[in-house]
Amino acid sequence: MAEQIGMTPRLLEYVRQTSLREDDILLELREATAGLPGGVALQVPAEGGQFLALLVRLTRAAAVLEIGTFTGYSTLCMARALPTHGRLVTCDITDRWPSIGAEFWKRAGVDGLIDLRVGDAAETLEKLLADEGPGVFDLVFIDADKANYPRYYELSLELLAPGGLVVVDNTLFFGRVTDPQFTDADTAGIRELNARLRADERVDLSMLTMADGITLARRKDA
């Protein structure tokens, strides 16, 4: 089997030309986000959003939890993949950025499926557990402040149904995970979660070298 190839700009453009199906609504939201401070770095790439939508469909998820909304590009991708009776709970510390995406959610006709929760994400997850109990979500996407990833993961696993999928973004974190010079809280949080996932027998695991690293962790049925 061939070794992992480096993703050059030319190859990435080829991937987008041959597999990306981004429509006008998604494109407009992505371009609007790119004009914001840090917008390009904080938003999932278009192919990442398409991948998330595929995972929602593959898992036949009817209830999705997203930790970290930003302007809601990934929110829109996943909401479109839900069945008509589905729901997507998305969490952000502020409604400033999600309010940008809300217009696009409405234009796409999925705003009725999306439940935005504003506030501390860990507190939001704990309230969901208290109000709805464990095992109520089929898929969880974690893409928020990295220092709290270990906490978000543990709460997500409680909220996840057996056989459900946790998707964690930025698990390679710009390559900083392998560089001892980086000792900041965000890098440390990613390292801690990666180590925890490797040893966690509650899940099946695969880390993908897509974009900035995407880890898939399926909660075992028993």
Automatic annotation (TrEMBL):
> By its UniProt entry, which SUPFAM superfamilies does this protein fall under?
S-adenosyl-L-methionine-dependent methyltransferases
**What are the BP-aspect GO terms?**
methylation
Q: Which UniProt keywords apply?
A: Methyltransferase, S-adenosyl-L-methionine, Transferase
For this protein, the record's Pfam families field holds: Methyltransf_3 (PF01596)
Gene Ontology terms for molecular function: O-methyltransferase activity; S-adenosylmethionine-dependent methyltransferase activity
Record Gene3D superfamilies: Vaccinia Virus protein VP39 (3.40.50.150)
Record InterPro entries? Cation-dep_OMT, SAM-dependent_MTases_sf, SAM_O-MeTrfase
What is the official name of this protein in its record? Methoxymalonate biosynthesis protein
Q: Which organism is it from?
A: Streptomyces neyagawaensis
